[in-house]
Amino acid sequence: MSRIVEETTDEEFDYIIHTGDITNTYKTDFQTGVEQLKSVEPYFETLSQRGELVYIYGNRDSERVPGGNRRHVTEEYELTPGHRLRREETIEVTGQRFTSNPKSAEQGDILLTHGIVPQQFYRPEAKAYFCGDTHRAVQQDHALNTGYLYNDKGYFGAYFIAELDESGITTQVLGLDERWKPVVCPDHEWYGRQFHPEKFGCRICKFGPQQQFAPMVHFAFNAATDGVGNGKTAKLEEIITSARGLFVDTEEYAQQIRQYLLVLAENDTPGPFDPLVPTDGDEKRLQSP
Fold first, then answer.
1. Do residues 267 and 279 lie in contact, with contact meaning Cβ atoms separated by under 8 Å?
2. pLDDT score recorded for residue 8
3. Tally: H helices and E strands in the chain
4. Domain 2-206 is in which class?
5. 212: closest CA among 197, 191, 196, 228?
6. pTM for this one?
7. Tens-place pLDDT, residues 120-148
8. DSSP letters for 146-201
9. Is residue 161 within 8 Å of residue 172, measured between CB atoms?
């Protein structure tokens, strides 16, 4: 945060948005997380003087307690600068509505969540959608995943300056310790504009399609069968049609998600994160595990 404050000296913004994981309580411990939150407050105070500060908390702002009740850092300490947007809440800041509830987002709203909601990211109801959590900085017209400021591997990330108009979000990405750039992969144009340091390439080319396609397939199956479970199944083409209607309606996208589904349908032992499994019949159908 100190780098953000330093690099935006003398800047003024309409809004400054933080998309969550303000602390690293989940990876450290509760008291360390509280101290991290207290250390952030002076920077939030300075930023709030440069624009209306709106923020949400993320999953890392709660402690990790397997099988127990997880404490959130705000149970001991609350930030005072800016405007906190709570889960499923809608607030108004200087005439602009912000909501964290994807189901209630309206055309004039700014949707803010920690974690991508795929339907809203590719077909947003709101005029703008900002989200965090995945640390994969990518943009689709009116939607922007903001990546990270600092990660567990010890790398500084980037922040964005965004301008919003009717055609979408115009973004400038600013790396904190190295130059970042926007990239549109010619093999995965449907994925949108990716942002990362110059030494990195397309994430799908490098890591494979599962991170992107697994949640899409889950939602597409749910829509195609009108609900997950109860022994429901769907043909591959039904899931593909559903995915095109929900997310990206291009032949490139359809072919790539078809290949992903074919792998699932032919895999006798599904992986732990596979959203669907093959049925016992000869026809290529899939069902929720």
1. no
2. 94
3. 7, 16
4. alpha beta
5. 191
6. 0.92
7. 999 989 999 999 998 889 999 999 999 99
8. ---SB-TTS-B-EEEEEEEETTEEEEEEEESSS-EEEE--TT-GGG-EEEEETT--
9. yes
